[in-house]
Write a structure and sequence with these properties.
It holds the Pfam family CRISPR_Cse2. By secondary structure, the protein is mainly alpha-helical. The chain has eleven helices and no strands. It is 61% helix and 0% strand.
């Protein structure tokens, strides 16, 4: 069994905190005020200044995350993920990725999010500014698929650590292209050589 990474712990803490914002069948009332504040926040800094965001940081610290060592960029990415998932009540165990749901369409029909809007979303995510443009683009995309189940845990992971590999995977997921995972970096280099010969 592999050991959890700090990112894994942060993601689990975030999902646990997110679920606690909503009422539960057990009679727990949730936190409607925090949900409303998070949905109203128009910028990443507004999210960071909210008590609910700091509740998440305290919870993550209790679970073993070295919150004091999180850099500014990581805090902004976490705030982005939090603001986006608070637009959605459930769906954390769905089998499809967020990008796959955005591109899903029946044969001959248009995808939920048009290719042009998807390209705009990816451009916003790629620029890596202060996060405000990303927040707006992600909220618009989420509104399009608000009733479709997708893997919220995967979205949180992607937004917190939006690497080049994840950017590429989002594009493949959106277009429904199947891609075999690379076994190793050496295999990637070898297969690229074979393809160009």
């Amino acid at each position: 069994m592999s050991e959890e990474t700090p990112s894994d712990i942060l993601i689990k803490a975030t999902l646990s905190w997110w679920r606690a914002l909503y009422p539960a069948a057990t009679g727990y009332r949730g936190d409607a005020g925090a949900r409303a504040e998070l949905r109203r926040a128009g910028t990443i800094m507004e999210v960071v200044m909210l008590p609910a965001f700091h509740d998440l940081l305290h919870s993550a610290k209790r679970k073993g995350v070295a919150v004091g060592r999180l850099g500014d960029a990581r805090i902004r990415r976490l705030a982005l993920a939090v603001a986006v998932i608070c637009e959605r009540r459930d769906g954390d165990a769905g089998p499809k990725s967020f990008a796959r749901v955005l591109g899903s369409a029946a044969e001959g029909e248009r995808p939920a999010l048009s290719p042009l809007r998807f390209q705009s979303l990816m451009a916003a995510l790629s620029r890596g500014g202060d996060g405000d443009e990303e927040l707006s683009a992600l909220r618009r995309a989420l509104a399009v698929v608000k009733d479709v189940d997708f893997n919220v845990a995967g979205l949180v992971r992607d937004l917190i650590d939006f690497t080049e590999a994840r950017r590429i995977r989002w594009t493949f997921d959106y277009y429904g292209t199947t891609r075999e995972p690379a076994e190793s970096a050496g295999d990637d280099a070898h297969s690229e050589t074979e393809e160009t010969v």
